[in-house]
Amino acid sequence: MRAKFVLALSILSSGLSSLSPLYGVTPPPASNAGIIDKEIQDQYEVNIFSPTKDIPVLDVDIPFQKFDLPEGISVQINTFIFQGNTIFSDQQLQNIAADYVGKDLKSSDVKEICYRIQKLYAEHGYILSRAYTPVQEIAGGTLTIEVIEGVLGSIEVEGNRYYSTKFIKKYFSSQIGDVVDYNRLLRSLMLINEHMDLNVGAIFKKGKNKGEADLIIVAKDKLPLHIATDYNTYGSYLTTKGRAGLRVDGGNIALGGDKLSLMEVMGFPFDHLDFSNAIYSVPLTANGLRMDLSYLYSGFKVNTLNALHLKGSSNIAGIRFYQAMHRTRRLSTDVGIGFDYKDLLNQQMSKTFSYDKLRVLTFSGRLDYADSYKGRLISDFNLFIGIPNFLGGLSAVDHLCSRKGAGGRFFIANLDVRRLQQLPWDCLLVFSATAQGTLNKIPIAQQIYIGGIDNVRGYPLATALGDNGYYGTLELRAPIPYVANYTLPFSKTRKWKDLFQFVFFTDTGAIFLNGHVQKEQAPSFITSAGLGFRITNLWRFDISYDSGFALTKDHKSSDSIQYLRVALRIL
């Protein structure tokens, strides 16, 4: 799930605004570490979405039971007797055979009845269930149909190297002895495939005992370790425009299926930005319950207004629990609950300027839906609740807060939506939007910002902040015409469309403030357009370039802003 932590420490905008007559400049909101934290954390999330969902391979290799009456022979059947059925009652099966009672039946008619019974089972996910007529002497017009519902017998695991057999088996072991349910099995397959560098499929073999099927789990796993580094120009001139980052992800470390992610981002010069983040994730059950523990530290120094020695630091610890709800071929949903302990300190000339001590409870939900139109919709909802006077936190309205009249009590609803749509000629249309709403006047760190990469390109990072607001982007990605499906000269399998894409986009956003806004920004609306390109995995390098052109005068700093990122996949 896209865990968008709203982290931060902040410099009081109104306080800085009061200094503008002296220095002739009003620093924009991007000088707040809270905004820097949010932007950096989103940038280093590794959630790469495809317009289609990967469905685990599930195959059946069990011989069918067959029954044949001699050719040209028909028998009148007045009564049907069913044996072996536990999922559906005798009456439900009698309803299927009702049209054939009292009629002369041929072999094809008997097969049709068995087929209809199997179809009923299959429609409810029982894909291994079979109906057949055992060897019998038909007397008095009575026909016995036996149902083998397909019970899961044993489980074997093949092909695994880095994930243990015990760990993989536990996702399926609770189903041993139960009738095989496709939906239940698919859920288990999809849950285990969410682990790092693990891909699992399944094949059924005929079991040792009558009515049993053995499950063969075929695993393909790689060393769950990834290291990547990058340089980008996504920052702010107030702290540092250029930034270098390192991310390390390691899986299956101490507990089965756990994951540790470490991130470090430095600015230039180094003492102007230091961002460190650690997230440890561990599955608690095989049914999709997961716990995340996180800690974030960041420190910054403002380049402008040097005489004031503006600087700050963030210390944020968090815990979250996520439960997978639906896992089907098209739909996945999750719910979550979390708590963040945030201490966000801002200083001016070595004296405390503001100190946001926020204690935030979060309720979250995610929906991931792949439709039949070659598209995919991913939506995240978060409800943030500020708890005042808890664990040393701010009061409901506190003089230490980064905004006058705000404090530790707030209710904020946040919605993220992304739509990926495949188009003809190997093109991809990407729509994304984020909206936030609250009735409260909230600390700067909890506000929504507009401007910057993955937001409204062409405007400075966090050029405006609001309690309420939205931003969205519509992006067309297209390969090089005519050569898109040609194989690359240095690869036997990759094509030009896998390496290079043009990008054309338009972005828009707006923010609104609650409470008295005389000393704060008025509502702001900005729109931009631009173009760029993406290069993917060129000898382990990923390169992205965007040029955004501001289309509205408000907050416009230049005709265009360039965004460059070069990343290297070390491992």
Describe this structure in words.
- This protein is mostly beta strands.
- The protein has three domains: 13-56 and 222-569, membrane protein fhac: a member of the omp85/tpsb transporter family (Porin, Beta Barrel); 63-127 and 129-148, membrane protein fhac (Ubiquitin-like (UB roll)); 153-221, Roll (Ubiquitin-like (UB roll)), CATH 3.10.20.310.
- Helix content is 11%, strand content 46%.
- It contains eight helices and 27 strands.
- It has a 16-stranded antiparallel beta barrel.
- A hairpin with a 5-residue loop joins strand 12 and strand 13 (273-283).
- The longest helix has 17 residues, at 107-123.
- It starts with 12 loop residues before the first helix and ends with a strand.
- Residues 1-30 have low confidence and may be disordered.
List keywords for this structure.
single chain, 571 residues, mainly beta, Porin, Ubiquitin-like (UB roll), 3 domains, 16-stranded antiparallel beta barrel, 11% helix
Strand content: over 45%
Question: Can you count the helices?
Answer: 8
Largest sheet: 16 strands, antiparallel, barrel
Tell me the distance between the termini: 23 Å
Radius of gyration: 30 Å
Tell me, briefly, the overall form.
elongated
State mean pLDDT (0 to 100 scale).
Answer: 87
CATH-wise, what's the superfamily of the largest domain?
membrane protein fhac: a member of the omp85/tpsb transporter family
CATH architecture of the largest domain: Beta Barrel
Please give the number of β-strands: 27
- The CATH class label of the largest domain is Mainly Beta
What CATH calls the topology of the largest domain is Porin
Structural domains: how many: 3
Low-confidence stretches: 1-30
Helix content: 10-25%
Strand order of the largest sheet: 10-11-12-13-14-15-16-17-18-19-20-23-24-25-26-27
